[in-house]
Amino acid sequence: MTQQPLVIVGGGMAGAMLALLLRRYGAGEVVLVESHPLTLPEAPPLTPSFDARSTALSAGTLAVLDDLGLGEAIREHVAAIGTVHVSRQSRLGLTRMSAQEEGVDQLGAVVENRWLGFVLLGALFRDDGIRVRAPDSLTGIRRLEGGYQVSLGSGETLHTPLLIAADGARSATREWLGISARDHDTGHDALIANLSLASDHDGIAYERFLNDGPLALLPLPDQRFALVWTGPREQVDQWMALGEREVLAQLQSCCPADAPRLTGIGERQRYPLVLTEACAQVVPHAVVVGNAAHTLHPVAGQGFNLTVRDLLALAQTVGSSDQPGNLSTLQAYAEKREKDQALISQASRWVPELFRVQQPLFAHSRQLGLVALDILPGLRSGFAKRAMGL
Ligand SMILES: Cc1cc2nc3c(=O)[nH]c(=O)nc-3n(C[C@H](O)[C@H](O)[C@H](O)COP(=O)(O)OP(=O)(O)OC[C@H]3O[C@@H](n4cnc5c(N)ncnc54)[C@H](O)[C@@H]3O)c2cc1C
């Protein structure tokens, strides 16, 4: 067990989850630095991570939350995904993945980010081994023998054998560490909102490929869907400006015929789809995680689920280590995670592109892809298992 604390910069989904996992896997003290105020347990937080969005949690992520003793609290406010219905507007080619076919209770579950934040941050505040510094931020780092000296805006100075950058896609910590990142601006935005329904969704999540980009409808408690509607920025400008009746009519026309009727839409918000990839994830005594390491297209709801698999591996590797910042230890972690990260990052980049191409040959092959997925249970099952994070 190390004497100096491990320091995480960024108290969003990745940073909060990592602090808990590090403690679970033997870390002594962890300091979490977050630039927004974290006001729990009085009120649910509203930070860039724990905002109005919802997150589809894979079965693998739910198992990690169970391991942290938080699964029950999370499940108080989730809707289970029993079936995923993938289709393309006005074309042949539809596939369904179901929990029944996979022999599991559910493929995953959808949680509102504010509730996820409430549960994760509540657990952080209950743990005496986690010191939360919020609102506070990093003002400088200095490389020392055996680690980093970290200066905070509050005037505090920390010494750590392992500095963890979890401060999002525009990570200042990553820059302080001298790690560059590649950005791929898709030119698209995601519009998100909650939708109320005339009838129950029966635990069905819809993934619909439209000409402008993919649309996802994720089941939420209380007969609602969480909407993720992606398209070119000018198109999203129009969707944002439409009145409630018009936007609901347009959305309904994009939905499969058997989807429930949409009756209302909550506040609409938009997120630019800029895919970021750090050029390195580990250097001596530092590691980059979450959106700071890889920001994915939200098409298949994989960003946080992939991150949780990274964080679990990292916590298992360094949590109880005497030398958590040792480069060969960190490299072993990075190597372990390389394949999964590459596969998910490529798929989340490739799938929306493939479905956007208009040439008839492509249109045909992607229909065939969906049909093949539907006809070949083994292929579909492999796809479902990866999406479930198993
Ligand atoms: C529309 C949309 C839908 C999504 N849906 C899903 C889904 O269904 N399933 C899924 O698995 N993933 C989904 N994702 C991906 C998921 O949201 C990300 O994986 C997740 O937000 C990553 O969290 P993070 O903590 O790394 O980064 P962020 O959420 O960006 O959090 C970074 C944190 O660091 C803090 N910070 C920033 N700078 C500093 C600083 N200098 N000092 C201290 N703190 C700082 C910020 O305030 C923030 O709290 C979706 C993403 C989008 C955009």
Automatic annotation (TrEMBL):
> What does the record list as GO biological process?
ubiquinone biosynthetic process
Which SUPFAM superfamilies does this one have? Answer: FAD/NAD(P)-binding domain
Pathway membership, UniProt = Cofactor biosynthesis; ubiquinone biosynthesis
Recorded hits in InterPro entries, A to Z, give: FAD-bd (IPR002938), FAD/NAD-bd_sf (IPR036188), UbiH/COQ6 (IPR010971), UbiH/COQ6_monooxygenase (IPR051205)
Q: Give the residue spans that cross the bilayer.
A: 6-22
Q: Which GO MF terms are attached to this record?
A: 2-octaprenyl-6-methoxyphenol hydroxylase activity; FAD binding
List required co-factors. FAD
What is one Pfam family matched by this protein? FAD_binding_3
Keyword set, alphabetical order: FAD, Flavoprotein, Membrane, Monooxygenase, Oxidoreductase, Transmembrane, Transmembrane helix
Q: Does the record bear Oxidoreductase in its keywords? A: yes
Annotated FAD-binding domain ranges read: 6-339
What family does this chain come from, according to its entry? Answer: Belongs to the UbiH/COQ6 family.
Spell out the protein name for this chain. Oxygenase
Question: Could you tell me which species this protein originates from?
Answer: Alcanivorax sediminis
